[in-house]
Automatic annotation (TrEMBL):
<keyword id="KW-0689">Ribosomal protein</keyword>
<protein>
    <submittedName>
        <fullName>50S ribosomal protein L22</fullName>
    </submittedName>
</protein>
<feature type="compositionally biased region" description="Polar residues">
    <location>
        <begin position="124"/>
        <end position="141"/>
    </location>
</feature>
<dbReference type="GO" id="GO:0006412">
    <property type="term" value="P:translation"/>
</dbReference>
<comment type="similarity">
    <text>Belongs to the universal ribosomal protein uL22 family.</text>
</comment>
<dbReference type="GO" id="GO:0022625">
    <property type="term" value="C:cytosolic large ribosomal subunit"/>
</dbReference>
<keyword id="KW-0687">Ribonucleoprotein</keyword>
<dbReference type="InterPro" id="IPR005727">
    <property type="entry name" value="Ribosomal_uL22_bac/chlpt-type"/>
</dbReference>
<feature type="region of interest" description="Disordered">
    <location>
        <begin position="123"/>
        <end position="158"/>
    </location>
</feature>
<dbReference type="InterPro" id="IPR001063">
    <property type="entry name" value="Ribosomal_uL22"/>
</dbReference>
<dbReference type="GO" id="GO:0019843">
    <property type="term" value="F:rRNA binding"/>
</dbReference>
<keyword id="KW-0694">RNA-binding</keyword>
<dbReference type="InterPro" id="IPR036394">
    <property type="entry name" value="Ribosomal_uL22_sf"/>
</dbReference>
<dbReference type="InterPro" id="IPR047867">
    <property type="entry name" value="Ribosomal_uL22_bac/org-type"/>
</dbReference>
<dbReference type="GO" id="GO:0003735">
    <property type="term" value="F:structural constituent of ribosome"/>
</dbReference>
<dbReference type="Pfam" id="PF00237">
    <property type="entry name" value="Ribosomal_L22"/>
</dbReference>
<dbReference type="InterPro" id="IPR018260">
    <property type="entry name" value="Ribosomal_uL22_CS"/>
</dbReference>
Amino acid sequence: MIGEQLVPNQDALVARAVLRDIRHTPQKARRVVDLVRGMRADEALNVLKFAPQAAGSDVYTLLNSAIANAKQQNPAIRDASELWVVEALVDEGRTMKRFRPRAQGRGFRILKRSSHITVAVSDSKATSKSLSRISTKAQTRNPKRSDKSPLAEKGASN
């Protein structure tokens, strides 16, 4: 469900794998990651194995790594069918700027985007999806827009 808040399970095993600066745009990588979020790990591997998108093979390898990390933390886990993909997200990585020559001596800027992909697996489906994230209200770049700012209160009263 959208906006569902889950209570973190303290005794659940959570294993992560992070892939940084992969040369896929975040928008295209999110299409692949959205397919497997919330699935069983073995089903997610099957979906990623046959995904036609280019990022599918990289996310497949990353999910295998997260499963191996979970097996390393808890040797009682026999295979991927005991694990769930509880967190799968794509963040924007660094952007390389390049120039392409255009008509009349102009230069056209090309942005080559990269992304950071994070996958977390757990032995419990009810594990919180926001395991290490802070609340979205505290994540603001502009201090004028934060809820506790006096400028925000002043603008709201007008």
